[in-house]
Every structure is written in C-alpha cells, then in structure tokens.
Amino acid sequence: MAAISSAPERQLAESAADITAGEAILRRQAQRESAARTYARSLPVVPVRARGMTVEAADGRRYLDCLSGAGTLALGHNHPVVLEAIRGVLDSGAPLHVLDLATPVKDAFTTALFETLPPELAEHGRIQFCGPAGTDAVEAAIKLARTATGRGGLLAFSGAYHGMTAAALAATGDTAVRGTVGEPDARVTRLPYPYDYRCPFGVGGDRGAELSARWTAHLLDDPKGGVQPPAAMLLEAVQGEGGVIPAPDDWLRKMREITAARGIPLVVDEVQTGVGRTGTFWAVERSGIVPDVMVLSKAIGGSLPLAVIVYRDELDVWRPGAHAGTFRGNQLAMAAGTATLRYVRENALHERAEAVGARMLSRLRGLAAHHPCIGDVRGRGLMIGVELVDTEADPDDYGALPAAPQLAARVQQEALRRGLIVELGGRHGAVVRLLPPLTITDEQAEAVLDRLAAAVATASTAVRGGAA
Ligand code: PMP
Fold first, then answer.
1. What is the pLDDT of residues 21-30, one digit of tens each?
2. Which of 18, 137, 169, 435 has its CB surrounded by the most CB atoms within 10 Å?
C-alpha cells in the first residue's frame, strides 16, 4: 500500500475515517450540486432503503415519511404491486422507450386512468402524454387552451403553484420562485383564492369565498376592468404548496359557472391532489364540477415520472406534432401508474384517506388548543397543513397573527430528530405539511402525531426562549 505522504492527503484520509459514508455523501452533495437544491437542505437524510412510509438512512436511522416524494407516493415507497408491475415490464422484454407509440402497457394505463375520471370527461375525453413532470402537463394545458380559444390571457390565483417552466411559472403566485425568469406574465390576471384563515377581504368563511367569486365575475364583465377575455382559468381544488388551502365546494362550483357562462376553459391542476389524496379519487369530485382540462402527474406514475392532460374532445384542436417531446412513453412509469390507480380504486384508499385524515385533523385541532403558536389546522383527506404563527407579534386588523417561518423550520428540524420527515410550505414557509401515503396505518398516524406534537412543544419553547 502506498504511504500517505503529503499533509493534505493525510488530512483527507483522516477526515474520511472520521465521517460516515452518509456524511461524506452529504458533503459531496453540498459541494457539487446546485445552490437551487431544496429538500436536501432542510432534510439532510441519505435514504438507502424504503418501504411503505418508512425510510431508512445510510446511518441506520429510520424515519416516517410524510413528504412522500412531494405527494407522489400514494402507496408509499416500493409497494409490492408497484414493484411487481415494474418487474413485469422488465421481464417481458418490452421496449422501455417508445416515444408516443402505442403499446399494450400504455393502452392499459389509459384504460385504468379513464376508469377513474369523472364520467363526462371519460366519455368525451382525450389524453395527451406530456413530458415527464407536472410542469410539462401544466404547460401543455395552457398551450392547448391558448390554441383552442385563440386567446393569450390566463386567470390564476394568489398562492397558486403550477411548476417551474415558463407559462406554469408565470401562473405561480410566489414571486420569489418566479424570480426574474418568470417575469409576471402580462397575460396572467391574478385572482384572490379563498384563503379562509388569511382572507384577502378580511371576512373569511363563506362570505370571503363569495367575495372572491364576485370579484372574478366582476373583473371579467367590466369592459373597463383591464382584462382581455382569457384562454383559461387555472386552479387547484386544494392549494398544496400555497399552504394546504382547500377551496370551498360552492366556490369551485361558482368558478365552474363563471367560466362556463363566458366560454372560458376551466383547467384544474390535480398534480398534487389526485389519486385519492384528498378523500375522493380526484379532488374535483367533492364539488361535482367537471373541468374542461385536468392536469395530472405525481401519483399517476406510481413513483416514476409521468404527466398527462385529459380534456374535453372539443378542445382537441392541435395539429399532429403540435405538442411533442421525447420522453412521453415511459413504460415503467405507465405500468407502475396502472398498478397504483387500480390498487387505490379497488381498495377504496381515497375513503381511507378521508377517514384517517379526519382523525388526524381532529387530533391536530386538539393540539392547537394547547399551543397558541398553531394558528390554523386545515386540510382534506391526507393533505394536511398546520400553520404556525408568531404569538408575540401583534395581530393584524382582522385578528390574524403573522406567520412564523422560523418556528416552522425549527419544528421541521425537531420532527426530523424524532424520526419524522415533514415538508414546509405556505405563503411564508410557515405551514407544516403532512402528505403521508394513503396506506398509512392507524399506528403510524398516531406515531406521526406524537412526534409532531413533541416537535411543536420543543420548538415553541426554544423559539420563545430565543434559541431559534
Ligand atoms: N402543480 C401542482 C399543483 C404541484 O403541486 C406541482 C409540484 N409540487 C406542480 C404542478 C409541478 O410538478 P413538477 O414539480 O413535477 O413539475
């Protein structure tokens, strides 16, 4: 063995011996990956194995994963039916990459997906396989609506999140992520989303939602309102990144009415809410609205990248090749997606999401009663948000306390220390978000809440004591 001669070499060897393999990977990541990396900053975990909602890290620690690949893993990690479907394709010798050619795997996926759609859309619907990410599908939906209507403008909402490509980014509400690249597109008209806890009209409840709808209709009908007839309205039935904000059913129905009456295609982004997450298979089902376009990704690929739009056939105005892309034929994702869609449906996991989610919400509300720093607890199904507030600051004119992003970050760290992975979101990053798999057991749900409760207790004491 060659002797280690130089001082830097010796130092390297010593430091390599001192740190674990996982730490070395984290160090190399910090040195080599973009400053734009996100989850990796607040969750310094090196996953090496995972099953269901349990993730095991390189250092042997185990975590309950309430991030689920940003809401992707409806069945948790490595569910047997997903693995079996992937192995089935691999063992069959089928091609893995086929552009947009027809295959039995794709045919089965389309059939399984259509079986889940609102009947009106399934009967008169078309599907476009997009590039692999949610943002690709949002982009496609906007482009389709622009082509079909011959108009450019878009109606989008405060707090919206639709992705990182140009049109999707312009529709996104967060000016920090939009940066200068996603310059506020002059063609995007921003409308108020009914955010009950921080109602933009200062009234909240049904009245706040009514005012949001009224503002929308008024703006569209006012000949001097400054808004050109738009190509589409784009909305999330439950805002995810915006802070887990469920839109009231009546408001959604009103948006459907307003858009239908004015010939504006309604595009619902179900990228995060889809496949049972919110207690119904698709979030739109609760209100009964049928959108003109649905944007689907995340869970439909059963943990692999897949994104599609489904839309009413009268919008099918594209010429051949009008919306192309190399990676639209991911066979493994389609097989994993088919298995996931079928499993969720056959086992009514959306109902399970509703039941477990309701119990979790109720326990979290109990927790809020003991911790004034929990300003609001909300959600639908297994899409849950806990908004943290600064109890030492003055409330605004309408009684709401300011968001507490530092406290939320501390809660996330304390949760991690206790073996719980949670995500932050919301307007100021002050909402702790829970997106567990729909397969979560009752015991796991209790464990998640025990760990979160302990994290909130420790973090609120620490932050109050100035140790944040
Ligand atoms: N729409 C919604 C509602 C989302 O939550 C996301 C991702 N969080 C996207 C679109 C973008 O998806 P992707 O990150 O796969 O591009």
1. 999 999 999 9
2. 137
